[in-house]
């Protein structure tokens, strides 16, 4: 775990952590977060909040990922179109059978090379190969899997891949709130940070009891405190 340095900042770490958490956890704009802080008597401009998210978001996400348990061995892969500066790009995403976002990659094409890049990144980051790979009927997935010599059982079809399809909804909401992504690099950085926070606080609340939900919330809050602790 890498401690976070808050040196040379006017506001204390608690306020910085809370502002970044609000922006990454909920579908809010920088101005929304500014107003929420102002309601508590904190005079922070939305530009300051944006700089905090840019500076600390990736460091928080890196620490949060280190606290997550090992992913499930069933991976769902899918791609969606995003518009960046008027150009259609493809956001390739992978989630496991529990809904954990494993990784994502913004790429200009929807072909075998793009599928290969995503799969190689996944294998390196997760440290193990899946037992089951679930995708839509895009042939690039099968070609990439054969080149990597994956032994995973490959399931195809829209219905089988509902887990990945529904996982796009949270990205669509953020894309609309941000009035589209400004560049592929900024989209990649934001979505990586957003995914780590989403994984930590996505508690599947409709599937569990209230007492269990309270326990999960407390555990998620503790992970956040650990990941964002000051040096």
From TrEMBL:
This is IS6 family transposase. InterPro entries: DDE_dom, IS_Transposase, Transpos_IS6. Residues 74-201 form the DDE domain. Residues 152-172 are annotated as: Disordered. Pfam families: DDE_Tnp_IS240. Residues 158-169 have a biased composition (Polar residues). Keywords: DNA recombination, DNA-binding, Transposition. The keyword Ribonucleoprotein does not apply. NCBIfam families: transpos_IS6. It comes from Labrys miyagiensis. The keyword DNA-binding applies.
């Amino acid at each position: 775990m890498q401690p976070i340095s808050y040196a040379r900042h006017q506001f204390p770490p608690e306020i910085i952590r809370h502002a970044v958490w609000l922006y990454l956890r909920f579908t809010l704009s920088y101005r929304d977060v500014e107003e929420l802080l102002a309601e508590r008597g904190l005079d922070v401009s939305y530009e300051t909040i944006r700089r905090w998210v840019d500076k600390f978001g990736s460091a928080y996400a890196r620490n949060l990922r280190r606290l997550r348990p090992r992913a499930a061995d069933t991976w769902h892969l899918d791609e969606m179109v995003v518009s960046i500066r008027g150009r259609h790009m493809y956001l390739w995403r992978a989630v496991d059978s529990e809904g954990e976002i494993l990784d994502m990659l913004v790429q200009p094409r929807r072909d075998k090379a793009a599928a290969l890049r995503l799969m190689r990144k996944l294998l390196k980051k997760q440290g193990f190969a899946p037992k089951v790979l679930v995708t839509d009927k895009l042939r690039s997935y099968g070609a990439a899997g054969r080149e990597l010599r994956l032994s995973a059982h490959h399931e195809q079809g829209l219905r089988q891949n509902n887990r990945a399809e529904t996982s796009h909804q949270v990205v669509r909401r953020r894309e609309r709130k941000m009035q589209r992504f400004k560049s592929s690099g900024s989209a990649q950085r934001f979505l990586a940070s957003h995914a780590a926070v989403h994984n930590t606080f996505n508690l599947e609340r409709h599937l569990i009891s209230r007492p269990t939900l309270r326990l999960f919330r407390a555990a998620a809050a503790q992970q956040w405190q650990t990941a964002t602790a000051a040096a």
